[in-house]
Amino acid sequence: MRSRKFFKAEQARLVWDAPGLLAGVDEAGRGPLAGPVVAAAVILDDQKPIRGLADSKTLTALQREKLHDQILAKALCCSIAQASVEEIDTHNILGATMLAMRRAVDGLRLRPAKVLVDGNRLPTLDVLAEAVVKGDALVKAISAASILAKVHRDRLCEQLHAEFPAYGFAGHKGYGTPEHLAALQVHGACVHHRRSFSPVAEALARVPVMSASITVQVQTVEVVMAQPTA
Length: 230
Known about the structure:
By secondary structure, the protein is α/β, with parallel strands linked by helices. It is 41% helix and 13% strand.
C-alpha cells in the first residue's frame, strides 16, 4: 500500500512549462448593467518589482491609481482591451469576456511563453495558457492585470457619467445598485446599457432608449505598453 507521503508527491505540480515570459490576464466589468467589459494582460519585469500588488477588489481607489501608474512604468509589456456592449448582448457576457481577454493577449508587444488567466475559464489563445482560480490574489501578474482593467473601466464610467449624469455611473460604476435601478425606472435605459441583462430589458419595455448629443468612444480597444529593459 502506498504511503500518504507518496500520494502527496504524486499530486505535486511538475514544472513542464517552457522557460520564457509569463503574462497575467484578468477582467473588470462582468457584473455591471452598462458599459463594456475590460480585460488586461501584463508581463512583469522581475528586475523591477512592484510592492503592494493584490486583487484590485481589496484595494482602495487611491491604491489602485498609484499601482496602475507603477505597472505601466515598470512592466515589460501591458495591454488593455475591451468588448463592447453590443458584443456583450450578441455573445453573452462570458463570450464577450473571453473576447476581451483574447484581444488583450493579442495586443501584447512581447509574446509570452505562457498566459495565466484569472478564474476557471480560458479564452481561445495560440499560446500555452492556464486558468487560475483566485489568481488575482495568488499571481502578481494577474493582480497587475486586475488593477489595470479596473482602473481603466472606472475611468470609462466617469466618461459615461459626464454623458448621462442622471444614472450616477461615477458612483456605482454600472452595477445594479438601488440608485442605478431607480434611475432605470425613471429614465429607462441609455445607449450604453446592456440590453441582454434583465433589469435593462425590463426598463426598455417601459421607457424608450435615452440618447445624448455626446458620444463616448467606449468600444475602442486601447493598448498600453512599457518599454522593456535592455
